[in-house]
Amino acid sequence: MRIIGLTGGIGSGKSEAAKEFAKLGVPVVDTDAIAHTLTRVGEPLLAEITHTFSQQFLNGDASLNRAALRAHVFEHPAERIKLESLLHPAIYAYAKAQLTLNQTQLNPSYQILVIPLLFEGNRYQSMLHTTLVIDCDETTQIKRTMARSHLTETEIKRIMQTQVSRETRLQLANEVIQNDGTVEELAEKISKFHKKLIKTCIVSE
Ligand code: ADP
Questions:
Q1: Is pLDDT above 60 for 166?
Q2: How confident is the model at residue 203 (pLDDT cuts 50, 70, 90)?
Q3: For the residues 162-185, what does the mean pLDDT come to?
Q4: Any residues with CB less than 8 A from the CB of 103 and at least 6 apart, and which?
Q5: CA 53 to ligand 1 centroid distance, Å
Q6: What residue's CA is closest to ligand 1, atom 17?
């Protein structure tokens, strides 16, 4: 099972890159999407979160008020550790099961695992064949994130401070794709990377 860990800072273009891989028929497992799935109404993990924290982080319809919980743990690091200790093992187990299922059902040359905070922890490294960083300069990162979300520049910068620096990320990466042009240019680079990877998979298998 060949797993490529796809990462990058906020707004760098991870989701856009993942979409391109999916278009090429590559199975994509996204740890952020898993976090959403596991905290939907009716999921045991949501009940655990509510039990550990409080009902104040639920919306009127019993769904998780993600923004409120995110803001709370941002201000209270000890609470963030508590939340992460609930979320991260569950996300990891789910991702592993999904990757195994994809492998069995689809037998792909490789799969993409999107892990926004790959280099901030060490849970996933050992299962990865290669790490791929999607990179752009910080001004572009902020501009794109502001256009996508309701976050202010200050809030985005604060989030960036909780992530490894661009320099560190680039040092740790096995492969880097620059996403400083158009979406079409990104698609072209992903397609090239895909072809290269397929070739090396064939050679070494
Ligand atoms: P991430 O998943 O890394 O946080 P996204 O893939 O969601 O980042 O990209 C952030 C925003 O920027 C999205 O609205 C996306 O459509 C847009 N975007 C990504 N790459 C480009 C690009 N090359 N040109 C223009 N917009 C882009």
A1: yes
A2: low
A3: 97
A4: 1, 111
A5: 33
A6: 144
User: For the chain, which domains are there?
Assistant: 1-27+109-200 (3.40.50.300), 32-107 (3.40.50.300)
Reduced to 3 states (helix: H, G, I; strand: E, B; else coil), residue 113 is strand
H/E segment holding residue 69: helix 66-75
CA 74 to centroid of ligand 1, rounded, Å: 24
CB 138 within 8 Å of CB 160: yes
Mutate to test the pocket of ligand 1, among 14, 23, 113, 144 (most ligand atoms within 8 A of CB): 144
Ligand 1 closest atom vs CA 9? 3
The per-residue pLDDT for 136 is 97
CA distance 143 to 160: 13
Q: Which residues does a 6 A CB cutoff place in the pocket of ligand 1?
A: 8, 10-16, 144, 148, 179, 181-183, 186
The confidence score (pLDDT) of residue 79 equals: 93
pLDDT digits (tens, 9 = 90+) for 89-107: 999 999 999 999 999 999 9
The residues facing 175 across adjacent strands are: 132
